[in-house]
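Page 42, continued from yesterday. The earlier attempt failed because a stray header line got pasted into the input along with the sequence. Redoing it now with the clean sequence only.
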Amino acid sequence: MQQFQPLLKGVNLMMLMVGVIVTAPTASAGNSSDPAKHWTADNGNGTYSNPLFYEEFEDPDIIRVGQDYYLIGTTMHMNPAVQIMHSKDLVNWKLVGYCMDRLDFGPAYRLEDGRGIYGRGIWAPCIRYHRGMFYIFSNVNGAGLQVFRSKSIYGPWERNQLPGRHDLSVLFDDDGKIYIISGNRNPYPIEELTPDLKSFVPNSRRMMNASGMGEGHHLYKINGTYYDVSAIPGATTDQMVACADSIDGPWKVERMVQGESLGITTAAPVRATARDRGLTLHQGGIVDTPSGQWWSVIMSDHGSAGRMVALVPITWENGFPLIGLPGNLRKAPNTWIKPNTGYTQDPKPAFIHNDNFDSGTLNSEWQWNHVPDDTKWSITEKSGVLRLHSLPAGDFYSARNSICQRPPGPESIITVELDSSGMVTGDTAGLALLSSPYAWIGLAKSAEGTTLQMYSSPNRGGGFGFRRRSADAALPNPPVISPDTPPKHLWLRVHCNFDTDRAVFSWSANGKEFTPLGDPFTMIFQLRTFQGVRPSLFHYNASGRSGGFADFDNYTVDEPRARGIERDIPMGRTIILTSSADGSLLAADTEKHSVVNTAAADQAPANARFQVIDLGKGRIALKAGNGKVVSVDKANAILKDLGNARCGNAESFQWINLMRGDTMFMSLTNHRYLVTKPNEFGVVTATATGPNPARKGGACFKWKVVE
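This time it went through. Structure tokens are written below.
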């Protein structure tokens, strides 16, 4: 496999584009990095829990350069484009910049055609490092394949363009040839690029015949063997891997991931049923560590919050890299031991969204919806605020200079101050959720005065680029207008709960007491924007001309469940364990020396109480009231008297965190989970391969401290 090297430190990343260097947004100062307040994958005890980022990060590709890891992802119609992350331990990451400040390929990219490029733009980028140069390849739908290069990951980045290729991957081979694979159906074209990467080698096209593969290619050469990792298209699908001794084949294909959802439901979690298939891991790259371990950063859908990435271990079997651990391949633990990268780091959030606009630069998490008009926004025109001058637009979808972030899950509360004193007739400004449908709360100024409104658009549906004309022509919904006369200075808020897919908009005159406005908004994932919902600050004028200005300040994002019960392990305490499937209790059968599940009871019996013994690195043993320890023997959970002996693998369980308070216990004997038979009392085994997405399979438990 190729190696890859050092990277970006700041977020003052620049893009060299046709001879012009443009500076991308940089991080503002003053944000707290307390991991208790922001989602952090690192549990602080030598383990991590997925997702890596509890917010959207699409189509990941990853490389290692020495001891540094770099991760990039899709940004679609957002600007700046192609976000780049850096890590030294594969768990704690930092956003270090973007490789293109403005994705400007014509009027549609600037929302000047009234339709835009929603759901298009940057797709499935590929990052590589070769002979002292970083390369990023990404197709821009409708424009062509962009080839970025820089000796420093900080930029500046040079760019050239090639004919478009869908979901491509590039391999710099040992003999100097440069291969590019693309496409989403078998057979797949493999072509050669010239050394300067500015054209395709004539007559170099060959076809890879690998039935069963998909799209989202990741092409590697590892120990002399060629590998292509790809995903079967869809949200409840698997990832495949093909290998060959020659780039010309023949290719053998193996299933790399099979039905692994990590407990993520297809429907909103509160509406999931026992038969929910889950949103499965299905697209991502692989990388090794200096210690010889292999890992994958791989994507899965997460409903209205968008698509997120997980870090999962890889086990090699029969020459194929398979996700999972020995005894439980093609599945993956949601909590596991941090990779052995040779680097130790304390937990640190990857993304901190707050921005008080005092630093003179934008927080690096901000992205513009399409290419902005840079003459119509400023954070220096009035110190300490983001000023948006309105531009003509018929509605929020067509409004330029809407500035967006990704909302963290599983719950986030977004608040911003708005000063409307500079708004004029025809102006509308506020806080929105960009999606399809979209919704917003804000102020609309007319000749009769200013009103406070909450608006939810009809679902215009459609796929990429507004394909459904009849849906586009849907009649607008009437706004909900507050009976209160709004002050010129007020606070706007939206509370997003991704377990229910509901968002509540509210406002305040003092920043303390908030009043809801309108019905809760149902958030969805859809293919029009091809993204999860995006909190957005916006200002447009509906009269067909430019208008006034609106000043935004103190944008805050609270994450009330950044450190919920999922992160607690009650070490040393006595607990009861209740099945999430049927409410039965885990109990010790002292006569048969086994672990069973018994009927729920108002007062838990003594044999349903277990002491949690700390074994380090998030691993525990469960001691029954008679002093015996839960042990796994031929996949059966038994009670064992250890005497003065230490717990071995048979008595050791990885405490697996799932969201919504569910816990699983992975046996270190076979990397499978303790499980009961729902609605049937009997012996507990260590045979479950993973969680049922709706937590109804018998392997998920709720715990409660009783002593």
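Notes: The two ends are 52 Å apart (CA to CA).
Reminder to self: strip header lines before submitting.
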